[in-house]
Amino acid sequence: MIAGRKRVLDVLVWVGIGIVFLVVLFPPFMLFLTSIKTNVDALKYPPVWIFRPVASNYREIFRLIPFGHYLFNSLIVALVSTFIALSVGSLAAYGLARFRFKRSKDLSFWILSIRMTPPVAAAIPIFIIMRTLHLLDTYLALILAYCTFNIPFSVWLLRGFFQEIPREIEESAMVDGCSPFAAFWKISIPLIAPGIAATGIFTFIFSWNEFLFALILTGSRAQTVPVALTGFIRETGIMWSHMAAAGVLAMVPMVVFTALVQKNLVKGLTMGAIK
Amino acid sequence: MFKKKKWAPFFFIAPAVIILLLLVIFPLVYSLGVSFTNWNIVRGGKWKFVGLGNYAYIFLKDPYFRTSLKVTLIYVISVVALETILGLIVAMLLNRPMRKIGLLRTALVLPTTMTPVVVGIIWRLLYNPELGTLNYFLELFGFQPLNWLGDPSTALPSVIVADVWEWTPFMALILLAGLQSLPHDPFEAALVDGASSFQIFRYVTFPLLLPTLIVAVLLRTMDAFKTFDLIFVLTKGGPGMSTEVLSYYTYRYGFKFFHIGRASAYSYVLLIIVIAITQLLLRFIREGEER
User: Touching check for A273 and chain B: CB below 8 Å?
Assistant: First the structure.
């Protein structure tokens, strides 16, 4: 009797899990489907489910707009911003994890609170400053803007990784005559290499996905993929199949990266606030 | 050993602090100054100091501020409430020994790490009244098709649904991690005492999970206040003011009307709201850290 009820419950749970994954995966599946339809098929109603798939949309987006250029821009900006966030961030994270000084805790929370600033509040002054410095529509403007959220994130996440290594390891190195920086560089950094990789992937994802700064700070030259995607929405209508193809291309690297960090996913998404 | 060299902490921390001072604090102080002026960049460089004029306008005269604040609050409260409840249900469903959990987790988190603009595009496609799949299903089951994003009464709920789709997995993942780190003993004791599943949830799981739940809710609340991409792609604040959240309204003031002075004041109002919530969050995290 009890075993029977348990089996019913089990079936219900699996049905529930099935529904969850259906709901999660159906929308992106529709995007993919639209991306391999011809424009004629994409605009049919009721939607056609059986059709001849085409790859032409993926080719055409590189011809219709300089999509390759936008991909390159996104890549450069995300890579450089990630590099800065990791180098500056790992130093600060180590300093905050290892040294106790007056107000070190307040400093940690100050850095964390920067990450909480609504981007639109920072966007207005950053726009004016970049305009004054004639940096609008350059990589530098975006890279600097992305540092505002990537540095606090990497400090906070890397601090957690540094705290996990026992400080005795570094102390013994320093007893042997290592300077604090040498202990940091030769001992601690190699030990948290996986943490640095995970942090880097997260900052890359954030930079790749960022929209507001990219929208206001760039024009045609430094435009990134998310802004370029909205370019398919035109007064005359939306180029659905092309936009879908570009959307799939923007999404694929993030799916791969997410799979890579999935062990550290919760830690990263919450900046280590929940263990 | 770590205390001897006094310069060491500054050497490590200074670069980050200097960059953040230049990139965040200086601009924010600058825009606080700008928020006391009537600077409009299309009128050229001319501006006048107006004191608290912009703030007085926002709170006393602006007919749209209250509407936007109301839309924002409805939006934030709805998405956080729905995402918490659904996230908890999903986390409970997945909280069992499973092979391939990594693969499932990657699939589940797809909406959360997907480029937000792409999320907007996907939902615009689904909601489209002429070719959208949602109306197709509605008609299939005998309902009237809806003009989801085009009708002021359904636009906000439609954007909320998209946000719930995007962020429920985030909530579920955090709560799942929380569930999996709970100690076993209280559950065994409850089972021995013959507690029902509901009683176990109500008196054991829920109280133990509460700290995680609070942090997750606060993180999500702060993010929900910032929602911009989804609104930009789905509705641009319309139709009318029906989806005009504060972050979008501020953006419009700054980058459509170029009224930088007033936009800065708006951004400070938004900033203060978010800081108030952040303080709450930090207090919870700090208490958690000290334990």
Answer: yes
